[in-house]
């Protein structure tokens, strides 16, 4: 079962694309214009939640969460204080949008890289209020379980054995809101591993956030050219070296010699 939404191509054609065109100026670096336009919904230090100027989806309200003041940094390299503050700001605003009851559901995700579906290089996330659709209708518990990489009270970090889209998907499952900062660290480790050790060629990923069965879940997905098996036949491929990948991450990030 799928949910279909109308996409307004005439609006999409006017969007800048700093990922594909270096001549385009970055709209998220130009904070003076952002404030003049009056599109700021929420602000805390360097973090902004703003109205998306390009509302390409019908029956939805699209927002952008700008993570940094410049294009120089990315989630994989944020220091601890910036990382924690970002997740505090993001979760607070996501929960506020959900509890407003304006939308049937609010999707929250991040694009990074040319294969992620994004267009702007500057580090950002997106929140989209859906008036008619509930993303939870397409979720299943097995999509968030897997081989455990690490676990601390209130949060689990695993490698999916039943991915939604195939190949490499990490899950960070938060069951205790007080462990949010540990969740943020697990997400950063997954992103750093994908970009530095696993996806050097494409350097693209998505993070999808879900509220599901009382948990907050982040699914970090390696992105590369789409699989014809998935696109044409809904056949999901699962790598046969999952245990090896888990051991590699544990060695790199959770051993005594780990550098991150």
TrEMBL record:
Source organism superkingdom: Bacteria
DUF4931 domain boundaries: 7-131, 137-254
InterPro entries (UniProt xref): DUF4931, DUF4931_C, HIT-like_sf
Protein name: Galactose-1-phosphate uridylyltransferase
